[in-house]
Amino acid sequence: MSATAEPATTGAAGKKTPPKLVFAAPRRAKPPRHLADLTPAERREAVAALGEKPFRADQLSRHYFARLVDDPAQMTDLPAAVRERLTAELLPTLLTPVRDLSCDGGTTLKTVWRAFDGALFESVLMRYPDRATMCVSSQAGCGMNCPFCATGQAGLTRNLSTAEIVEQVTAGARAMASGRIPGGPGRVSNIVFMGMGEPLANYKAVLGAIRRITDPSPRGLGISQRAVTVSTVGLVPAMEKLAAEDLSVRLAVSLHAPDDELRDELVPINNRWKVREVLDAAWAYADRTGRRVSIEYALIKDVNDQGWRADLLGRLLRGHLVHVNLIPLNPTPGSKWTASRPRDEREFVRRLEAHGVPVTVRDTRGREIDGACGQLAATAAK
Q1: Active site located where (predicted)?
Q2: Whole-angstrom Cα distance, residue 202 to residue 216?
């Protein structure tokens, strides 16, 4: 993603307002149109434009979203000639698996996908005793340039389409339904937009994906909005826009530092929207939706894990509808950044709890399979 600056303007008092950052992904060819890109009404229009009866769109939606089928041979309620044409036009192949790696006894599955134009990105399916969570990418690469993140250091290739995001979920849903993941046949219950990319920098496609994922079956996958989490590094205008959508998805803010001096370095977008602005937008989201905000905080040895920073974070967060998710950093090869010492992690937790702030330490799945976001895709690209 590139950031361009609109010219500074001069207000009535003669003061210059800072230039507005405009985020734009590199221009590239668009992925083929897919059923998951379209609303139910748009699907019917698309089918009618192909010379078929609009109700065929409902049949196609039932196969794709409810039965998780995209093979025309299995769509026996459609005439053969019709099914071949509709699947060719509305269910094109968008993603090709390049590499699968599993760990945790097969209950964690990480996949590198290649898109139609060669762009690479990742998704992760994690099965727990009580749920199955899909971590999906919203961009191929990322333009936020956070120095401790493998994806951020790779830069942005392009935004993903709504259907490319949804296809990651349906792939995981098929793996669960088929019994491929140990534990027997099951279903994907939770979605987290915490894979490659900054979701709110690809706002329209991400919002469309949320709709497809949460619309009742067979219009969508029928996953509860309350089981969907959207992360952001703090794009304040987009956070405010998301709050106005009246969704009940959870917002996760990747904060990583409670003070502007350090966050300017760790999360460069902080040079545009400071910690207080980001948190104010988060509290407004919580007030509007009634959903607890998750504060994501990667603990980095001798960088952001000092006791005084835990105290500062606790003072900023106490009294709000919030939960802190501490993440032991999953280091990338050759990086100077590494996870905090266990004793420093425990002290950070203790200090936050002393301020009355609920906190957990994230389960670090996938460490042995290039678990850091973007790491496996970078390996596949080489």
Answers
A1: 122 (proton acceptor), 373 (s-methylcysteine intermediate)
A2: 24
